[in-house]
Design brief:
single chain; alpha/beta; 8-stranded mixed β-sheet; 20 helices; about 45% helix
Length: about 500
């Protein structure tokens, strides 16, 4: 029997409700599952039982465990049947009025010590709890779908939640084998708030014609190690869900520029290009298979020009070594010859600005993203100015692809694709820490488990270097004149003194 909550009820027998019921039973609770549609409860219990049977067949649970779990999951025919429960978790429609009505009805049925938990992903837990006679018994318990596989749970104290209730819910999550993180009752909690930077900045890049969506996806997968590119992810989630979340969080934070959604996404949603479920989104889907446009071929260049590297290039020594490894003819004079391909490697600035400031011929300038160690990436990214000659662009592409590594060439913008997206992710996460929305440790855990990022956002900043992230953001703010890129004070303090651990708690 579970030590935290022996008798648990789950209201709502959809995908989330059945997943929560499954994990509650596996944690040793006696579970009652209720839904206004009794057939939904029967289907959910059958589905969960089949999952347990598959686990037993694969040796992932014993026959005794299977029998105990099966005996511990029962249907409830009314809300009154939940009277003896210690905990009720609602997983019903995401509407404030529906959740308030349910908890108000339950308060008249369950005992005074019964905890009421909402699985809301976007609503204010405080607003759900406020009408209750005892709002201290209510808190948020946000699971992720599919519940048995997504091992993260956000525990959200409402403004008046009793500390003992929050502690008990945290312990209960651990007893399920899941990982709890504590989130303030603010829009998006942790995961949905921290995840805004990945999609919104990628949409902005495509909207500026820096690169097409497939190229952005390739770059972020191959350079930073994301499992899915942002457009693949939005197609999987559904743009109706992703864009609605973007708009909701943006508005609830009173139009915070860092969270600004995309007009392009709104237009695509209006057109019904929602992703996999409609057969077309950013990609087309034929028989469920994603149709990916081919990459541009590597140009054939008869003779490569000599290469001159800007003295202000990021990782200049490493860039020189890379050029030597590729067999380039390197010029070392103070200024490039009239035949040279001119390489720049800025952080945050666009190639045109660099060419103007350094008085370089923009027709021969090509930028390369050196924010990351070249050996740690599977793709190199180049950028041209609007004036870059085609022969210089092709020569740079052919040179940097000569060892077989993939190369993408994008249009000029402030920062490269990975610089802009990662700096934006780090900045939003830093601002969450600045506001005290969660601890840095819980932020890292929530993002890696809930979003599947290769690193937590603060660890990304750590890997790149806080001063480099700051340089990118300051330069982006200069290029665009947009407060979207203003660095968080939390990040500025750490970058200014060069802390090695960006996620170190004060």
């Amino acid at each position: 029997m579970n030590a935290f909550f022996p008798q648990v009820a789950v209201v709502g027998a959809g995908a989330m409700g059945r997943g929560i019921a499954q994990m509650a039973a596996q944690a040793g609770s006696q579970v009652l599952l209720f839904d206004q549609q009794p057939e939904a409860v029967a289907a959910a219990i059958q589905s969960v039982t089949e999952q347990w049977q598959k686990m037993q067949a694969k040796g992932k649970c014993s026959a005794e465990q299977l029998a105990g779990w099966t005996a511990g999951l029962k249907a409830a025919d009314s809300l009154q049947a939940l009277a003896g429960c210690n905990l009720v978790i609602e997983a019903i429609v995401e509407r404030l009025d529906a959740k308030v009505a349910l908890f108000s009805a339950l308060e008249a049925i369950v005992g005074e010590s019964c905890v009421l938990a909402s699985n809301t992903s976007s609503l204010s837990v405080t607003a759900i709890a406020k009408p209750l006679k005892r709002p201290g018994r209510c808190a948020g318990l946000h699971f992720f779908n599919p519940v048995p596989l997504m091992r993260l749970v956000e525990v959200i104290p409402a403004t008046h939640s009793d500390a003992a209730v929050v502690d008990a819910l945290t312990g209960y999550v651990k007893s399920m084998g899941h990982t709890p993180v504590t989130a303030c009752d603010m829009p998006g909690f942790i995961v949905n708030h921290a995840g805004r930077g990945y999609g919104t900045e990628s949409l902005r890049l495509v909207g500026e014609s820096v690169a097409d969506f497939a190229t952005v996806d390739r770059i972020l997968r191959d350079q930073m190690g994301f499992k899915l590119g942002p457009f693949e992810l939005m197609d999987l989630t559904g743009l109706d869900i992703s864009h609605t979340a973007m708009e909701s969080i943006y508005r609830q934070f009173y139009d915070e520029p860092r969270l600004r959604p995309s007009a392009q996404a709104a237009q695509r949603m209006t057109a019904g290009l929602l992703g996999r479920k409609t057969g077309a989104g950013f990609y087309r889907y034929e028989n469920g298979q994603q149709q990916v446009p081919p990459e541009p071929p590597v140009p054939q260049v008869a003779e490569l020009p000599p290469v001159w590297v800007s003295p202000r290039a990021a990782r200049r020594a490493e860039l020189y070594q890379l050029l030597k490894n590729l067999g380039a003819r390197i010029e070392t004079a103070q200024a490039p010859s009239s035949q040279a391909l001119i390489l720049v490697a800025p952080l945050g600035f666009d190639m045109t600005t660099v060419a103007a400031v350094e008085r370089l011929d923009p027709a021969r300038v090509v930028g390369i993203d050196m924010m990351l160690d070249d050996a740690a990436t599977r793709r190199r990214v180049l950028a041209t100015t609007p004036a870059t000659r085609r022969d210089m662009r092709d020569a740079a592409h052919a040179l940097f692809a000569s060892d077989g590594k993939a190369v993408s060439v994008v249009r000029d913008s402030g920062g490269f694709v990975t610089q802009r997206v990662v700096a934006h992710i780090v900045n939003i996460a830093s601002d969450m820490c600045q506001q005290g929305l969660c601890s840095p440790a819980d932020l890292e855990t929530a993002v890696t488990l809930g979003l599947g990022y290769p690193l937590g956002p603060l660890a990304m900043g750590n890997a790149i270097g806080p001063t480099n992230v700051l340089e990118i953001l300051f330069n982006l703010q200069t290029v665009y004149g947009d407060t979207r890129y203003r660095p968080s004070p939390w990040l500025r303090r750490r970058g200014a003194i060069g802390l090695s651990l960006l996620h170190e708690e004060e």
